[in-house]
Amino acid sequence: xxxxxxxxxxxxxxxxxxxxxDDRRILIDCGLFQGYKDLRLRNWAALPVDPASIxxxxxxxxxIDHSGYLPLLVKNGFKGLIxxxxxxxxxxxxxxxxxxxxxxxxxxxxxxxxxxxxxxALPLYTLEDAxxxxxxxxxxxxxxxxxxxxxxQVSWHRAGHILGAALVKVxxxxxxxxxxxxxxxxxxxxxxxxxxxxxxxxxxLESTYGDRLHDKTDPKIPLAEIIHRTFDRAGTLLIPAFAxxxxxxxxxxxxxxxxxxxxxxxxxxxxxxxxxxxxxxxxQYKEESRLTDQECxxxxxxxxxxNTPEExxxxxxxxxxxxxxxxxxxxxxxxxxxxxxxxGNDPRNTILMTGFQAxxxxxxxLLQGSRVIKMYGEWLPIKAEIQLLTNxxxxxxxxEMMIWLKESGHSPKKVFITHGEPNAARALKARIESELxxxxxxxxxxxxxxx
Length: 451
Known about the structure:
7-stranded mixed β-sheet, 14 helices
């Protein structure tokens, strides 16, 4: 059994881990790279392994940095099945189609306005490619043991984080390896906590917040303060949010604030068809969350849903104070861009970041102090107030990760630390080695290890 690291090494995006068992090749996660240009260019380069040689794909959860490369994998020759939990498949139906739409729309816009050096600019993949990939999915139940190729056992275990998110355990040749995917919070008010860590020989562990602790303040308090400050100056609050997970958490807190009359009665809009559809899935998969029926209903009803592009443009043109929740969460694409273009240059307004911003993204640039960002081939000045709420994150911080690692009472032979910026990965490695005395390694891109 060997593992090859094809992504999420030195970065939080592009998750892909190739497990080789005799002559079988199994890919765990199949995500897009995001952020810095040199990372994004990997999406366009040939995959370091022939897609046609891969026998199966196992998905931990639906976020694009874990699933967004699937249409291209299928387009380039992958013929096998893609296994994921039912909620993950349902979310991938939304996310992959939306990702394809954005790819096509970006290419169309680049050709129309001539700001791409490629003539013509082409999408990475199309809606047709996404639909073909979705036909190769097979939904799996949590804790179900799937036998692949008569000798490999695979199981999915709840990881919290978002609907359907799973720890994926693979057993073969008398060895086992557990892939954490993205690990959820222990006390998230919306999502259930991750289950106790299954016994495993090897652990592939994310480290997104490996060097940080989340603020333990109730997010409602700073959120209410930001809302009041923005509306006191007759501004609009613009909230870039990941359509799956973060948007629903923001809706939950806004519903609670309104219910408790802690914020003014201002219009709230959810302007992301993808986020709207993901929010509706909260009802369908209620067992995945901690919300009561009433809380779920209140969260889903607190905002007006903006569906069509025409409605979205009208919302941008309306300069009356309001709250707009839109995707994408790192401001890499989607309707948030035209809202940012309209509202970003007014000091009365606020842009509230609600989660991790990968290096090189517009969200990261704003948090680092940039007040001019490039969008649609032109430079856009930013004068709005910039804020960040770290305690809305759906990722466990290092304290929560250490609790999760310790609670099961057994030690893996080795931990491979992935899915983190270099400082975060190194900090988590040092903490695990110091407190648990476990062997840890931070694999580099394309590194291969015998298990």
